[in-house]
Predict the 3D structure of the following.
Amino acid sequence: MAEYKLTQEGKEYLKKDLPEKNLVKTLKEGPLSLKETKKKIKNLSIALQWAKRKNWVKLEKNILTLIKYPEKFPEEDALRKIHEGKEVEESILKTLIERKLVWRITEVYKKTEEAVIKAGNVIGELTHNIIRTGLWKNRKFRPVDLELKKKLDKSKIKAGKAQPYNYFLMEVRKKLVQMGFKEMTGPIIETEFWNFDALFQPQNHPARDWTMTYQLKKPKHGKLPDKKIVENVKRSHEVGIAGSIGWQYKWNPKKAMQLVPRAHGTCLSARTLASKPEIPGKYFAITRCYRPDIIDATHAIEFNQLEGIVIDESVTFKSLVGLLKLFAREIIGAEKIKFVPAYFPFTEPSIEGFVYHPKLGWIEALPGGIFRSELTKPLGIDTPVLAWGIGIDRLAMFKLGISDIRYLFARNLERLRKHKVIS
Amino acid sequence: MPTVEVSYKDLCSLVGKKLAIGELKNAIAYAKGEINSVDGDLLKIDIGDSNRPDLWSAEGIAREIKGRITEEKGLPKYEVKKSDISVKVDEKVNKVRPLTVCAVVRNLKIDKNVLSQIIQLQEKVAGTFGRSRKEVAIGIYDLKKIKAPIKYTTVKHNEIKFVPLDFEEELTPKEILEKHPKGKEFGHLLEGCEEYPIFIDSTNNVLSMPPIINSDYTGKVTEKTEEVFIECTGFDFKFLIPALNVIVSALADRKARVENVKIIYPDKAIFTPDLKPKKTFVEINYVNEVSGLKLNGKEICNLLEQARYQAKLKGEKIELLYPAYRQDIMHFRDVVEDVLISYGYDKIEPVYPKLVTVGCIAEKEVFSNKVAEIMISLGLQEILSYTLTNKENLFKKMNMKEERIVEIENPVSLNWNVFRNWLLPSIMEFYSHNQHVVYPQKIFEVGDVVLIDEEQDTKTKDVKKIAAGISDSKATYDEMLLILDAFLSSFKVKYKLKRAEHPSFIPGRVAEVLVNGKSVGLIGEIHPKVIKNWQLEMPVAGFEINLEEL
């Protein structure tokens, strides 16, 4: 059997009479203008609605007149009875529920109320049911425990975080894109053709020795590109091209077909130049590279290179210096930079930019040069090409505050979890 | 990059000017050098140019920077006098090591510094420029102990005996290859030869067995040596001539007297060394076009004189002579670099390239990054591992049969000798390093695997994949699927699951993930055997998905 309870409004009327009762009580003194009545009666519109429906009053030309003063107020009696837990007539109950003066107590309410009372009439945790039943009204909430911090079970939640080095590389990508550079991609396993020959590195160069470059056991040989390019590269090596005397030896296509894990990212620049790049064009690549170095604090099994090219009729060595200076500021965040002559097999003239680190002094950071004509011409490019690089792994070490390059690929979960997210 | 050791005092005296270390540091940059360490009088200098053997000695460095910081500019002058020494080349050497060029140097005043520079230069030139003696082997001998004419010929493996350098007993050529440390180090250069090359004088005194070792009697230069015979052997004059020129120029810089040697080949006779300067030219326009500077002819001439060229202005062209020890000038560009080095890299006013271009990140990277973002938002820690690994990790520990993969011929370590062809082993390896870290451990990696693909020019293909793992006292398929589902539905990818079998997973608790009817990966609970193989004791659930198939 259901139980009923007065609502807040019901309780108020029980205490201060129903609005329609107040109205008829007032009109007993004589008719009143609507304006006057309004001043005297709270909830006049509710009072009027019910008094008119019961035919107790009439309204004519803004004047309210009592028709008859009722003998009984059954709703009021019913409210009292419900309040006292007694039963009332079904039809009146229906009206009262409709008037939202009475509501039906549910199982949920009873259970929630019991729980709240059991907890000492204090709310520890606000729940869906407490909000629904309104049981929070006129009750106190339990204050939070400031000592909780010491008792936390930290295994329950861990922030998912980006791998710091990966995150750093993505930030660098974004900066380069802002500067108008387009990202190049290419295969991890390369033919020596793209890794060396197309870069005008002679086939007997020590860097092509197996102590300097990995070679593959299987698969061993790949395919050479377009015949025209191969012929040009061969000529460039054997007798020279574009005013060069070349390396003067017999170029061996079989050697060029050998597969290697790429030893640097420059092969991507060569591939880009050979496939009709945009002119003017600016390109970059972040590449995983492989060399058979002995592994120590500065040499990892795998490392990344960041490098790229700028192709345009207007570029000169002066603009290369400008470009490197811009990188020092925008990407490395260094204000002081100095330049010295350098040697790279693919570029002439070549340059190395050193940036100033407050603790470590001058650090080699920005290699660059103008690609040799012996490299660009065979790939079909007559426009000057600036080639640049940024020592990205060392930069990452500085930015991430680590001194051993192997930590870039940290395999310590604790370290990764504790790592501060870069802003 | 060659590193050379020089005496600070010796270097200053060669330059003819006392320089403070700071000044020397700046000056050495003109020779593409960087002082790596200072230990009392001993300087270690890294020379950045691996194509300029003339810079790999105190003499060469001094010569190069003198042009920039002293009054001595233009071509260094070298005179080659005639000698009566000749070398007869036997045609038998054609089969082993066909060519030689030689020189005689007299009036040497050898002290400790000179001796160490001679030995060092000889080692660097033969080692780096001469490709570990393959292209160039160099021998230097006390001329007073040799009776000309000298013969370059071959002998059978046990035909003669001589005492090799730093040994006391006589050995045959074959024994030298077996017993002497240099024989062991360079013996492969004579592999398969029926006879071995040899220099021998008119009294049948052996000078050396190139490219392995000198004799102890003639082939030992000391502070008492006053005149030397030098020979370089190899296969190509393109290597041999510059190598010899570099060495004799360095000795000439010490005020020694260089004399030529007549080398009698079966078909012709040549005289070496020849230190006559070489000719080239450069156009004013070209220099300015490449450099971006606005130099006039006179200025360019002046800058090239500092770089030890002789420069003469002829209209729009500059005619040039450059020293015989330089073999690196292949193109006008090489000359422009010398102009710029003399000009001073730090004096160049930078201009910022003003090219309007549209940048973009490669699509693959953008997608990988988005995938990582979703996984991170699901509370997983991102990890990054090497693409190199080993077969044990990829197959044996994963309870699998070996598959065809990309293998390295010359690994530095057997731990890293193949490319991974799937990612879950990287997840398992990571777990194996973190057993003492608080569980649950939820991790993922987005990375490349390398597969064999005969269709490609490189016979291989990189594939971008994602693998994720959960490890805890309980780690279930159900929990893993929640993550996979959240990840795939973020990209509105509709997928189906199909019962599958895979040796790395528990039978019945693994499914194939299908997108558009195609298999894109696996999800399931890792087999306890695999967990044990990785020395782990916590259950692991995981998935691996090919991102390029989504």
